Amino acid sequence: NRSNLKRRDSCVQNFSLRYFHIEKKLRSESLQKVQAALRKILFTRSEKFIIRQIALGALGATNRKDCAKEIYEFLSKLDQDKDESLRYRSFLWLGRMAYTPAAKYVEEELKKIEDEKADWRKQRDSDELGKDSSDELNQQDKTWKKEHWEYMLGNALARIKPETTGIKLLNHPLYQVRQGAIRALASRIADGDYDASLIGKIIQAHQNFDPDDLPSPFPYAAFQAIDLALWNLEYTGKKDDVTKLKEILNNLKPCKVPGQEGAIKERLDWTIKRLKENLALAKNAKMSTS
Question: What is the SS3 assignment for 276?
């Protein structure tokens, strides 16, 4: 009956908020039962959208590869037109979980968005001559509706493959894709999944950029990624990162991009000083409490 359904919905929602914190304490048998229950909810098309969404979030919050596999399977079964919201959330979680087997699928989805936007631009430009520029409704029709998809897919793909595709996406023609990649690369540093070596690879790609390829968004997007990643490293880095940053600094080549001469060197100097200070503060705090 209705009261039982409300009680069940409340239980699923409450569990989704706690699942991430308790799953390590559950016995494997119990965890499997919980996962099976969430999977059943997720794959039941007749289930309410909000409950399926909560079950999806509960599986994603575990950050477990077996749960990522469930989400990937779920995504492959969704209808591209009817299940857009669940598809969006599934891609989002696969990116957060950095699920490598999904990389090709995410790339294909991003290519579809690129092609769709190209077609939209052609249609917009061809219609422009026949429309009254003062018509408010026609102005609204010119708005591209999927910038959030661009950002999310760029972010997901860069989180899944940061050292290769993630850096390449900094040269992507779509602004939101680049922004998603910038934040993904920095977030992998903040999560502690990658160290200063990833920043070194972005810097190397920046230094290898040929100014003859200008105009290009790459050097400016790369600098944003370097800046944000270094900022995160100031607070999450370890002693080894100080050593790696010094090596990167000592091996810097002259910057070829106009307007960015010396900027990376200054940024590295600052981060090394800040990271050393933060590590010293953390060590003193630990000693004072022991």
Answer: helix
